[in-house]
Amino acid sequence: MSRKLEGKVIIVTGGSTGIGRAAALRGAADGAAVVVADVNLGAGEATARDIEQAGGRAAFIATDVTDGAQVKALVAS
Question: Is the pTM of this model over 0.90?
Fold first, then answer.
């Protein structure tokens, strides 16, 4: 895999399942530190854990993107 995102941080909303999870895993494989944001606590934590177990850097932040205050907190973190 290329490391074209090395040194970058990406936020993936809906990152716990489906296309969001795939984007999070791919971003990590390309070298990014990944912030997984989702309302699904268990699956979001699992995605972040899977990235870390593969040697990447990841964090999960529970976020409901329909709540502006939560989105601001996500970006600020």
Answer: yes
Rounded to whole angstroms, the Cα distance separating 46 from 30 reads 19
- Closest to 36 in 3D by CA, of 22, 50, 47: 47
Give the integer Cα–Cα distance in Å for 64 and 56.
24
- If one counts every other C-beta atom within 10 angstroms of the C-beta of residue 25, the result is 20
* Better-scored residue on pLDDT, 2 or 38: 38
* DSSP code, position 13: E
Residue 40 vs residues 7, 27, 56, 65: alpha-carbon distances, Å: 27, 20, 21, 12
Give the closest residue to 54 by CA, choosing from 28, 35, 19: 28
